[in-house]
Specification:
The chain is of the alpha/beta class.
């Protein structure tokens, strides 16, 4: 029998402020792929708060993002991650050791409308679903 911890993959979603994109990615991983993804998020320069429009956008799909807080990479970087996924922060996101690295190049919705935040949420949701399928497929082959 395969232990749950053997199939779970640890993900760290990173953006600059850890207030919108990486927060939504962490939340969406909990919603859409909790069976396979053990998600966390952090920022290279955390803002100290989660963007209120991100909270609204996630509430619309049944996730209470108001319970999250903006975190620094220093708070989570000591972990062993299978995946480190940056949201498009380029050189502002330092290298964090992991088996796999991806940059999703998600446009920053900060300062934009709720509609833009919803578009970002849906873009990230699609990427999370793809990542979940990929990880499930890799586990099926092992």
């Amino acid at each position: 029998m395969v232990c749950r911890s053997e199939i779970m993959k640890k993900e760290l979603f990173v953006c600059i402020e850890n207030s919108c994109r990486s927060q939504m990615a962490e939340a969406l991983a909990h919603l859409l792929a909790a069976d396979i993804l053990d998600a966390a998020s952090a920022g290279s320069q955390p803002s100290g708060q989660v963007n209120p429009l991100a909270v609204i956008a996630m509430n619309e799909i049944g996730y209470d993002l108001s319970t999250h807080r903006s975190k620094s990479l220093r708070e989570v970087s000591r972990g062993n991650f299978d995946y480190v996924i940056t949201m498009g922060c380029g050189d502002e996101c330092p290298f964090i050791p992991a088996e796999f690295h991806e940059d999703w190049e998600i446009p920053d919705p900060k300062g934009k409308s709720l509609a833009a935040m919803r578009e970002t949420r849906e873009l990230i949701a699609g990427r999370i679903q793809d990542l979940g399928k990929k990880v499930r497929g890799m586990n099926a082959k092992s």
